Amino acid sequence: MKVIVTGGLGFIGCNFIKYILQSHNEEYKILNIDSVTYAANQSLIPEFERFINYDFQKTDITSQKEVRKIFSSFSPDLIINFAAESHVDNSITKSAEFINTNIIGTHILLEESRRYLEKSDKADSFKFIQISTDEVYGSLSITDSSSCENSNYKPNSPYSASKASADHLTSSWFRTYGLPSIITHSSNNFGPYQHKEKLIPKIIDNYINNKKIPIYGDGKNIRDWIFVSDNVKALLTIMKLGEPGEIYNIGGDNELTNLELVSKICDSIKKIYPDKDLATLSDAVEFVEDRPGHDFRYSMNSDKLNKLSNSPYLSNFEDSIVETIKWYVEVE
Ligand code: NAD
C-alpha cells in the first residue's frame, strides 16, 4: 500500500512512521511530506532514510502545485493528514498559521485527492484519513457524558476551530464528491518525540531539572490521555477496517485533572530515580494565570472503534508513563 503521510516528522506522525517501518515494513511504501516547522523531529530523518520503502519530500501542504505533483508522481492508495499547527497556546497568539495549515492545507489535500481520483483507477480502494482532535467537541462539565461521534461540534480555541473547520471540509468532500474520507478524533497523546512546549514533556523536563512546573488556573481541568503508540495502533485498525464517511473517536479511557497528572508523573520519576534530589509536589508546582477560554474537560466515548476490532488498543498508563519518562531523561 502506497501511503502519503503529511506531517510525518511531527510527534504523532513520526511515531506512526516508526511503527510502520519497524513492524509492518513489507506492507507499506511511505512518502512523508512535511514542511519541517519548529515542531518537526529532524533527528529522525537519517533513521527513516535507511528504509528503502520510505521517502521524504520537504513540502508545505498549502502549496497546491507541489501537492498536485506529489499525487501524480507517487500514485497513493491512502493519504493520512497529520500536518498541522497543533499547540493551542500558539493559536491564541498566532492564529493565521493555524488557519493556513489546518484549514487551507486540508482543503488543498482534499481537492488534490479528488482531482487525482478522477484520473486514477484507485477510486474504489483509496482512503483519505483526516487526523483530528477531541477538542472539536468543546468543553464538557464533570457530569456530561463522553462525546460520541455524532455529538455537536463546539470548538472554543482558534486551534480547535481550525480543526473543526477541516473536519467539516472533509465530511463535505465525502458527501459532495464521494471522496472516501474518514475522520479520527483522538485524546491528548503523550510519548516519545513530543515537543517540549506540550504538558507532559514539560512536566518531566522541569521536574527532573528542579524547575517549577507551570500549571494553568487551579489545575483542576480534566484531559483524557492516550499513549501515542496506542493511538497509532488504533489508526492502523481504522485505515484497514474503517468505513468511508465515518468518524472514529480514539479515547484513552484515562481522564485526569492536570494536578493528578503532575502528581503521577512526579511519583513515577521519584521511583525511577530514587537517588535524585527532587522537590515535593507542592514545591514543584507553580499555578499560573489560566489560558483564555481554557476548556474544562474533554472525554470521548470510543465504543465505535472498539466494535471495529476485537483487539484492544490501550496499554497500561503507568507503564507507558515510565517508558515516556525514561525516553525524555535518558534518550532525548
Ligand atoms: P506536531 O505539531 O508535533 O507536528 C506537526 C507536523 O506537521 C510537524 O512535523 C510540522 O513540521 C508539520 N507541518 C506543520 N505545518 C505544515 C504544513 N503547512 N505543511 C506540511 N507540514 C506541516 O503535531 P502532532 O502533535 O503530531 O499532531 C498531529 C495531528 O494530530 C494534528 O493534526 C493534531 O491536530 C492532531 N492531534 C494531536 C493530538 C496531540 O495530543 N498531540 C491530539 C489529538 C489530535
What does this structure look like?
The protein has 332 residues and is of the alpha/beta class. The strands form 3 sheets. It has a 7-stranded parallel β-sheet, with helices on both faces. 45% of the residues are buried. Helix 1 links the parallel strand 1 (2-6) and strand 2. It has 12 helices and 12 strands. Helix 9 (258-272) packs across helix 12 (317-331). The model has no long low-confidence stretch (mean pLDDT 96). The site of nicotinamide-adenine-dinucleotide (NAD) has 30 residues, from helix 1, helix 5, strand 5 and strand 7.
Q: Helix and strand succession?
A: EHEHEHEHHEHEEHEEHEEHHEHH
How much of the sequence lies in strands comes to 15-25%
Radius of gyration: 20 Å
Structural class: alpha/beta
